[in-house]
Amino acid sequence: MSFVNLKQLAGELGLSSSTVSRAMRDSYEISTATRERVKAVAQQLNYQPNPYAGSLRNNVTKTIGVILPQLDNHFFSLAINGIEEVAQQNGYHVLIYLTHDSGEQEKAVSKYLTSGRVDGILLALASGTRSVGHLEKLKLMGVPIVQFDRVSDALQTATVTTDDYTSSYQATEHLIKAGCRTIAHLMVSESLSIGSRRLHGYQAALHDHQIPYDTGLVLNGRGTNEDNLGHITQLLQQRPDIDGIFASVERLALSSYQACQRMGLSIPDAIKIIGFSNMETASLLAPSLTTITQPAYAIGKEAARILFQAIIKHKPVLPTQSLELKSELIARASTARKG
Amino acid sequence: MSFVNLKQLAGELGLSSSTVSRAMRDSYEISTATRERVKAVAQQLNYQPNPYAGSLRNNVTKTIGVILPQLDNHFFSLAINGIEEVAQQNGYHVLIYLTHDSGEQEKAVSKYLTSGRVDGILLALASGTRSVGHLEKLKLMGVPIVQFDRVSDALQTATVTTDDYTSSYQATEHLIKAGCRTIAHLMVSESLSIGSRRLHGYQAALHDHQIPYDTGLVLNGRGTNEDNLGHITQLLQQRPDIDGIFASVERLALSSYQACQRMGLSIPDAIKIIGFSNMETASLLAPSLTTITQPAYAIGKEAARILFQAIIKHKPVLPTQSLELKSELIARASTARKG
DNA sequence: CTGTTAGCGCATTCAT
DNA sequence: ATGAATGCGCTAACAG
C-alpha cells in the first residue's frame, strides 16, 4: 500500500514538510500563493495525511467505539444509523464491536479500548455482564462513556433510554382496557435495566387496576427462540385463563405470536398480544399485533450527541445529561394511536 | 486520557523499553524470568500498547473498513454480524461507514480510506454510484477490496453475492406454477447488480414458460415507501389482470402487501406475492407472503474470510475467488420449501 | 540475553 | 513566510 506522504509531497513542491503541513491546515503564516500551490499538488498527488501519525502526535483519534450486544435486532440497527450520522457530521469514525450478550466478550472489548484507540464509547450493556469493573476502569482513565438502551446503574455516566417504565405501564393498561384480566409478561434478563423497568411498569399497571400480581404469569425469556417458543406454549397450556400477553422484547413478541397461532388461539379475539418491536413493518404484516416502537434512531443520535459534546469540550460525561425518550404505541386493529 | 506507556513500564521495571517490548511479544531472546516479571507488572499497571504507534511502525492497522448503503435493512445487519465475527477471530477491528445510497457519500468515504486507515475494505455499492473511479484508485494503491451483495462489474475484485438470477427465476416460476399469468415485477435501480440480475431471472422464467414479457408490468421502485405504495396501487388499478407480484427487495414486498390490503385484494387468492426478504419473521407474521431469504450472515462471513486471506498473505483479491451463495424460498401457505 | 539507536508520518516549537 | 529539529509510542536493526 503506497500512499504519498508529507515528505514526498514536500519534495515534489520544493518545500519543507513543515511548510506543507502548515499550508494544508490553513495556517495564517503561509502565503496564499504557496498555500494554493500546495493544495493543488496535494490534490493531484492524492495526498491524504496518515491518520495514525496524527493520532500519535495530537493524542486525538477522531474515532469512537460502539459496543453492542447484537445487530440482528432492529433496534440496534436503527440506533447505529443515528450514531453513524452524528459521527460523520463531526468528522469522526466509528468502530463497532458486538458482544453477543456475553460478559466475557464485553470485557475483552473494553480491554482493546483501554489503549487510546478511541476518544469515546457508546455502550449498550451485554445481558451477560455481572460486574462493571472493566468499564469503570475505562471511565477512570478518562474515556468518556455514554450508555444507551441497556444501561447499568452501577456505572455513573449519562444514559439515553426509552421511557421503559411508562410505556410498559401503558402497554399493560392497554390490555386491561381491552378487557384482559390474566396478563402474562415475557421478560428479558432481570439484571438488564430494560428487564426490570419493563417489569415494574407491568406490575404498577396491574396494581393500579386492582389486578393481583401473579408470579406464575411471568416468564423469563432467555435462551433461543426455539426454547422460548416451547416455554410460552407450555405456559399457555398450563394457564388457559391467560387472555393477554405483554412481551418485553421483539423476539418474545414474535414467539408469542407463533405460539398462539400453533395452538389455534385467535388473536386478538381469544388472546391479545402487545410487545416491544422496532420493526416498523411488524404491525403492518400482522395488524392484530399491537406494538410499542422505540425511537431507536433518535436514541442513537442523542447518545452520540452527548458523547461528542463531552469529547469536544474535554469534559466528563455527567449522569445529569441523561435522556429518556418516548416510545410509540401502535395498535392497528383498534386504530388507536398514542404517543 | 492517561495510559501507561512502554517507557513508563520499562522505568518501573528497571529495564529498557526494547526489552519490555520484546517480552510482551514473547520474543525467543528473552529469558522466561524477565518475561514473566514484565507481564506481571504490565498487567498490574494495566499496560496496553498504543495501537496507532504500532500501526505507524509496522504499517499494519489491524482494521478493516465496511462500506454499506444502510443498516435499516435486515440483510446488512445480518451481514455485519458475520463480518464482525470473522474480524474478531482474526484480531481485527471494524470501521463502519454508511453511504445512504449516495454516490457522493461513497466517494467521500473512500477518500477517508485513501490514507492507510484500514488494511482492507468490504463494500456493498451505493445505488447512487455512477462511476467507480474512486474505488479503482483505492484498489490501485494496493488496498484489498471485496464486494458483496451489491457489486459493480466494472470494479475487478472478488465478489460474494446471492444466486440472484437463479432465485429470481425460481421465484417467478413459483408464481407461474401457482397459476399466475400476469406477473408484475418491482425492481430496484437497474444500475445495481441485484437490480438487473433479478430482472433477468424474471424475464427468463417468463420466456421459458411462454409468457410474453410486458414492460408495462415492470415498476422501478426507487423513492420513498410512500411513493412506492402510491405507484404500486396505481399499477394494480390500471392493470386489474395482475395476479402475481415479484418484489426484488424487502421494502417493495412490504409495500405490495400493504397496497393489496388497502385495495381489498385477498392474498393469495386474488393475487400472490413473492419477494426477497431477510426478515426471517416476515413470513411468520404474514404466512401468505412467500419470501426468498438470502444467507446474509454467511455472505458477511465469506466476504470477510476472502478479505482476510488476501490481507494476511499480502496478495491481491482476485475476481476468481468470487462466491455465489444460495438463497432459500420459504412458502408457508403452501408448505413448499426449496433450497 | 539485554541495551542503544533510528525511524514510521506528522505537527509544533524554535529559529531565521 | 519558511526551514530545521524534536518527539508522540512503538519495534527492529544493530551492537554488545
Question: What does this 3D model show about the protein?
Answer:
2 copies of one chain form a homodimer. With 339 residues, chain A is of the alpha/beta class. Chain A has 3 domains: 44 residues, no CATH class; 136 residues, Rossmann fold (3-Layer(aba) Sandwich); 137 residues, 3-Layer(aba) Sandwich (Rossmann fold), CATH 3.40.50.2300. In chain A, 45% of the residues lie in helices and 17% in strands. Chain A has a 7-stranded mixed sheet, sandwiched between helices. In chain A, strands 2-1-3-4-5-11 form a 6-stranded parallel sheet, with helices on both faces. In chain A, helix 8 runs parallel beside helix 9. Chain A is elongated, with a radius of gyration of 26 Å. The C terminus of chain A is likely disordered. Chain B binds a DNA duplex (16 and 16 nucleotides) through helix 2 and helix 4.
